[in-house]
Specification:
about 250 residues, alpha/beta, Rossmann fold, 7-stranded mixed sheet, 11 helices, globular, disordered N terminus
Length: about 250
């Protein structure tokens, strides 16, 4: 008689399981993502536009990479500033990228790549690399690896901008930031179902303090880093890559 074979369920590594959950949750909300942003980001306009003066200073820029591009929302702000740039949008979720395709339908200067940016090297070389509300889903070790990959993917004089959520410098401020955010969005007018989904997604967050991430950027090789904008736990920060920094800014 044949014995029944017992096959142990395959367990994904923790990081892979988390990124799969991130992919699933954001895929599920892809069609509604943009319409919810102004409710969930109290400082929406400043958050996405704070980097534009620096981007405008990159007169040599030709190619842009958007990491965790989702629906292309952050790329839209850059495109509105300079529609002649060539954009490459990468994201975990094919559904989110499909919304981005619809957003930029008819434009021939956009490429879309479904990619797990937490593990895979970044494709190509760029003058500007941006990321909006994506990197905070990574563990700190993976953040540091990605920042190194960003540095390697930038051309000399290139700029990296990360518009993301960060942890408070200590537990007191971190708790205050999170409490204020929940109170604000709870009274924003966003419907109950969307609120529940948004609060559920925060369980996937791996926030790190701003100061910690600026040090990660320096360790990755960026010689000029700074925070451009901060409103509680919403921050915009980044750095220039070496040789052509002065000519890029002036």
């Amino acid at each position: 008689m044949f014995k029944h074979l017992y096959l142990k369920p395959v367990k994904l590594p923790i990081n892979d399981a988390v990124m799969n959950e991130v992919k699933e949750q954001f895929s599920n909300v892809s069609k509604k993502y943009d319409s919810q942003r102004k409710y969930l980001i109290p400082c929406f306009n400043d958050f996405y536009s704070a980097c534009l003066p620096l981007v405008k200073s990159l007169t040599h820029a030709k190619r842009v990479l958007d990491i965790g591009a989702g629906t292309g929302l952050f790329s839209q702000f850059i495109y509105d500033l300079n529609p002649d740039l060539h954009f490459t949008l990468i994201d975990l979720s094919a559904q989110m990228l499909e919304v981005a395709r619809e957003r930029f339908d008819g434009e021939d200067n956009f490429d879309y790549i479904e990619l797990d940016f937490s593990k895979a090297p970044l494709p190509g070389k760029y003058d500007l690399i941006i990321s909006g509300l994506a990197i905070h889903h990574l563990e700190d070790t993976d953040k540091a690896k990605l920042y190194k990959n960003v540095y390697l993917a930038l051309n000399d004089g290139g700029l990296f901008i990360n518009a993301d959520q960060v942890a408070g410098k200590n537990m007191l401020f971190d708790s205050l930031y999170k409490y204020h955010w929940r109170e604000t969005v709870s009274n924003s007018g966003l419907d109950r179902e969307a609120l529940i989904q948004a609060f559920e997604r925060t369980k996937l967050d791996k926030l790190a303090p701003l100061e910690t991430q600026l040090k990660m950027l320096e360790k990755a090789g960026f010689n000029e880093v700074d925070c451009i904008y901060k409103n509680m736990n919403f921050a915009v920060f980044g750095g220039f890559k070496d040789e052509k920094v002065e000519t890029a800014v002036i």
